[in-house]
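Quick question, first post here. What does this chain look like in 3D?
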Amino acid sequence: MRIIDPHVHVWKNDPAFPWPEENKNPPREDRTAEDLLALMDAHGVEKTVLVQVIHYRWDNSYVADVIKRYPDKFMGVGRINPEDPAAADHVSMWTEEHGLHGVRLSPAKDASEDWFTSSSMDPIFARAQDLGIPMLILTGSRRLPDLARLLDKYPELDTVIDHMADVHPDDAEGRKLLADMARYPRVYVKISHTWSISKGGYPWTDTHDLVQEVYQTFGAQRISWGTDWPVCIGKAEYGHTLSVVRDEMKFFSTEDLEWVLGKTALTLWNFGEK
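> Answer (accepted):
Ran it through. Tokens below.
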């Protein structure tokens, strides 16, 4: 069974990849690609998608450097400033010149009349659709109707809802809003962050019913696990983010588990495979 992790962050205190001026408190401890490779080897993870960390803001240079150095191990997703009039061109630049494959937006969870509902989204979504790269959305469930209105206009865009939109198991309205997104056949969901939304310890059993509902609603071919390393540190070990899905969520069939642990991610990021 191939194991592909579609959600990890890396960074490094290195003058070649300076922190932006607005980051007044950059992380002191590195979480490098080499650290990650050791974890991957220890847990049988074959490949990983690096998602640009917010510490660098809109400069995706470190991720771009890593995927060039380890092309058989990593692909990358970048961030762009959604309020920059040239945002769509930045998507093209990072994709075509630096090899990134995907863009991530992070609308505020409870905002209204903000950039995510403005006309500035249209060129960004259109460009991602034209380039054939996935759009990753990090937000709360109450923003999903805003996302839906955009997807009505861009039906050929692959879109990934990160971390189940941080819906908590006891949030009935949030669960419904997430389930409603299944009507878009090119919407995918990462079933990550069970360690974050749980009220208990590993294996976070109070979240399993929610994951099973997402699985039944979207199907195995549109959901994927993810570690969210190193954000998980302090709440979950890297290996536990894998084993909770592979070993503890007994409702997955063997065939479907192959999709959740690897094949779904490979649908969106093929790592040059045909």
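The two ends are 18 Å apart (CA to CA).
The chain has ten helices and eight strands.
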